[in-house]
Amino acid sequence: MASAQTTMAESNSKRRKASEEKDDRISSLPEDVLNHILSYLPTKTIVSTGQRLASFVVLVNNVLLRNPSGIRKMRLNCAHSIINDNNLRARSVDSWVRVVIGPHLEELDLDLLPDLDDDDLDGPNFKLPLSLFTCPNLVSLSLCNAIHLNIQSFTTISLPSLKILLIDIFGYVEVPMVNALLCGCPNIEVLDLKFLTNSLDNVCLPPTLKRLKIGIESKEVGPSLEINAPDLEYINIYQYSFSDVLNMKNLHNVIEASLDLMPFSYDFVVPLLKLLNNLSRAKHLVLSDSTTKWLLGEPRDLLFQEFCNLLHLDLTLPWFSSNSLLSLLHKCPILRVLKIRNKEKQSPILGWAPQPTAPNCLVSHLTFIEFKGFRGFSDEISFVEDVLQKGLVLKTVIIADITVDQGKKYDILK
């Protein structure tokens, strides 16, 4: 009996060993051969093989090969290769994108992280196939991280159906390349654009835009913006250093605007003021501290146009100055919501002349004020007292982040 059990155990052991050797032989096959074999297997079988990245590659190949011409939407978020396969993007991502490109493609979203050892900003990993730029029915295109636009002077760009374009990529981008792409999108309505450049060419934004978010990073002065968009409703310009803002026309339909602009000196305040005045019909306005530093930090009063439709004003201040703030509020006659974030200490500039009367909005429309970064300086206390006394329709006043000791806080609140 014992001998039979021993013989059976040895037999089972030999079968397991033979099976393991067979698995080892399969695993040791060249990847191209392994992928070809796995491409004929059902998806569940592929996953059960445990072939890590190869399983994923073959799974995607399986899906694409079964219906290569009917794919309307593709979204690919590709992180670092866990097995250090440096050819992953070159062989797999490129083939996947090429398969879906065609008359049926409507949405393409690519987010490709760079290789772990790739610090070269001038050499992103993945170059887009030029055939992508002639997809007749592509409606939405999103390109993020390690992607190279690969647009040349001879590249044909025709994207007549494109409505939504998002570009947020690594590496330096030449402005003429961006302009060429935008020129080939005659019906684009939503543009989210972020890139790094040393180019000083004008960025020519399409006149069909309804929503614009743009951030252009540069080591020095960035390129100028050129836009004539009568249908634009939302604009967000951020992390943008400029010397001039050219041809910002027909912005009278903008409802919401957010500006994070960084002029190099007070000499450039005039184009910034020009842009702000072009947005005078907005209902919601957000100004960062890099913007208010130049507008409200100017040692002389600036001639703001009246923001006749403005309901919501959100200001981040490099320092607090009640005179300049009240002067701005005088230009917002129907303002309902005011949010203030004070980042620094007292104003280093004496600032603007005191206002002889209370702003109209404070008397008749302003119902909500939030003041973050309150430090208890006399100018801040005077402002709060003023709005509490003259704010006839005020319903809510929030004073947050009070960085003073408890005793002083009690005296202020009294």
Would you give an account of this structure?
The model is unreliable at 20-24 (pLDDT under 50). It contains 12 helices and 18 strands. Among the domains are: 23-66, no CATH class; 255-414, Leucine-rich repeat, LRR (right-handed beta-alpha superhelix), CATH 3.80.10. The radius of gyration is 30 Å and the shape is elongated. With 414 residues, it is an alpha/beta fold. Helix 2 packs across helix 4 and helix 4 runs parallel beside helix 5 (88-100). It has a 13-stranded parallel β-sheet with strand order 1-2-4-6-7-9-11-13-14-15-16-17-18. Strands 8-10-12 form a 3-stranded parallel β-sheet.
Secondary-structure blueprint:
Elements: H1 2-27, H2 31-38, H3 43-48, H4 52-66, E1 73-78, H5 88-100, E2 107-112, E3 126-127, E4 140-145, E5 147-148, E6 164-172, H6 175-183, E7 190-196, E8 203-204, E9 211-217, E10 225-228, E11 234-242, E12 248-249, E13 256-263, H7 269-278, E14 284-287, H8 289-295, E15 312-317, H9 322-329, E16 337-342, H10 360-364, E17 368-372, H11 378-390, E18 396-400, H12 406-413
Parallel strand pairs: 1-2, 2-4, 3-5, 4-6, 6-7, 7-9, 8-10, 9-11, 10-12, 11-13, 13-14, 14-15, 15-16, 16-17, 17-18
Helix pairs in contact: 2-4, 4-5
